[in-house]
Amino acid sequence: MVSSHENPKTETKVLTERQKEKWKLILQVQAMQQKGLSILFISKQTKLDPKTIRKYLELKEPPVRQHRRRESILTLYKPMIQRLCCKGKTVIEIFETIKQEGYPGSTTILSDYIASFRRNMKQEIVSSSPKKYISLFQLAYYVWEFPEKLTEQQNEERKQAFQCFSFLEPFYTFIQRYRKIIQEQQSDKFHRWIVEAQKSNIPEINQLAKGIKKIIWQFSTLYSTDGATDSSKDTLIV
């Protein structure tokens, strides 16, 4: 007598209807072979390839295919998707935006991920106990201020916000670099920051860099003498 505990894996597997039908066929093939029927005869009766029959005869439990996570192609675009979700953009608007950045997938995978992300956001807010609220003003302050000037609690709140909204991390990095460069008056690094920021895929950083550059050129136009600027080289002659 076979113990019901000898093959716990078979018992715990949850099969789909299609998998159940396939397992029933596999058991039928194995039963036919146990009666002494040849593989060739079984192949003719079941219309299965002999190679398939040999494979079925070796199986001890239902085969369950492990599906890949379809959203894996979204990995590079998740920070951008999350940021656009928080801005209230629709699935179609987000799809058009990331498609321009090279996203090769369909709207179906994107829609599934967005639905999951928004659901998790709601659960995060509801399940937080005790409830904590960080205003946009506080969050902006945490992003702008140097971490060493924040209290331990404020730094912890900043880290928690970054965990919930991963798109904030690269934005924070750009802002902190900008502040340090300005504080230390590093002109070469400032120029490199402007170039990198203008190429950034973070719209807010891109707009900030363009705005700073515009202000600098307006200032140079107002206060420099004739010939003090060279627009062809994007430089200010001092």
Elements, N to C (H/E): HHHHHHHHHHHHEE
Q: Which radius of gyration do the C-alpha atoms yield? A: 31 Å
Largest sheet features: 2 strands, antiparallel
Mean pLDDT: 78
Report on the structure:
By secondary structure, this protein is mainly alpha-helical. The chain is built from twelve helices and two strands, in the order ααααααααααααββ. It has helices spanning 8-12, 17-34, 39-46, 50-58, 78-86, 91-100, 107-127, 136-144, 152-164, 168-184, 187-199, 203-223, and strands at residues 229-230, 235-236. A hairpin with a 4-residue loop joins β1 and β2 (235-236).
Give descriptors for this structure.
mainly alpha; 238 residues; disordered N terminus; two-stranded antiparallel sheet; 64% helix
How would you summarize the topology of this molecule?
Elements: H1 8-12, H2 17-34, H3 39-46, H4 50-58, H5 78-86, H6 91-100, H7 107-127, H8 136-144, H9 152-164, H10 168-184, H11 187-199, H12 203-223, E1 229-230, E2 235-236
Antiparallel strand pairs: 1-2
Helix pairs in contact: 10-11, 11-12
In short:
This protein is mainly α.
